[in-house]
Write a structure and sequence with these properties.
Elements: H1 2-7, H2 15-22, H3 27-31, E1 35-38, E2 43-49, E3 55-59, H4 66-75, E4 79-84, H5 96-102, E5 107-111, E6 120-122, E7 127-130, E8 133-139, E9 148-152, E10 157-161, E11 164-165, E12 168-169, H6 179-190, E13 198-201, E14 211-212, H7 213-219, H8 227-235
Parallel strand pairs: 3-4, 4-5, 5-6, 10-13
Antiparallel strand pairs: 1-2, 2-3, 7-8, 8-9, 9-10, 11-12, 13-14
Helix pairs in contact: 6-8
């Protein structure tokens, strides 16, 4: 069952998800978060919830999928408290502003280095709570100055935004990008997490859904190189 959950990209109306909820397995939302996909920009949105309190956070919501996301929150009876963006996205518009108008008490959050306005300006080490759980903010600049990686309190999952992708990484040729900073961010902030920590990126263009720190350390074709080699690769993309 866990292998099935791990491999699925969840549709909020998918019968399997509703079956699991009916069987009182709401834990699936926390342990294997639904990856809510937006096909135009190939963006993953993530919804995490505490199974007891139903307090929840949403990561990288997309404007075009606002109705879908609000409906799912309402269907699951969640108390959505924070909508956080891992960085300012160049390929889509966030839905946090409009989502705040439709969900009472919802607050927006983004890195203080992003240059964007939000209710919560995030810094290294900040915690985003939901029930008895929380996400820890790790500053991972390089794709942009304001990129954050969000790590679950037990370090079982990391939401890496556009910093670390599955077998790749974010571009560094715009939005204050820096190949040197990105290499250091990934090696110092993400690759130091436990090997089994699941990596959930903000994008994937090949249908991949999840990786691990251990896999990316060994198999990522860009990040297994030296820093100098990495910079050359990024400069020639």
């Amino acid at each position: 069952l866990f292998q099935l959950i791990l491999s699925m990209t969840f549709d909020p109306l998918h019968s399997t998800l509703h079956f699991l909820l009916e069987m009182q397995l709401l834990l699936v939302i926390l342990v294997f978060p639904p990856q809510l996909f937006e096909s135009e920009s190939c963006t993953y949105t993530y919804l995490l919830a505490d199974t007891e309190t139903k307090d929840a956070v949403i990561i990288d919501p997309v404007l075009e999928k606002l109705d879908r996301d609000v409906k799912l929150v309402q269907e699951l009876g969640l108390n959505l408290t924070v909508a956080v963006n891992t960085h300012c996205h160049a390929d889509h518009i966030t839905s946090t502003g409009l989502m705040k108008k439709r969900i009472l008490g919802l607050k927006s959050a983004i890195s203080k280095f992003s240059g964007a306005s939000a209710d919560i300006q995030l810094s290294e080490g900040d915690k985003i709570p939901f029930g008895k759980h929380y996400l820890v903010v790790k500053e991972t600049p390089g794709h942009t100055d304001g990129c954050s990686t969000l790590v679950l309190d037990d370090e079982l999952m990391a939401f890496t935004g556009d910093a670390l992708l599955i077998r790749g990484c974010g571009r560094t040729d715009f939005q204050q990008g820096s190949s040197s900073k990105l290499y250091d961010s990934i090696h110092q902030k993400i690759f130091t997490l436990p090997e089994q920590c699941l990596i959930y990126p903000a994008h994937d263009y090949l249908g991949q859904t999840v990786s691990t720190v251990g896999e990316e350390r060994k198999l990522n074709p860009r990040l297994t190189k030296s820093k100098e080699e990495f910079i050359k690769i990024m400069d020639n993309l």
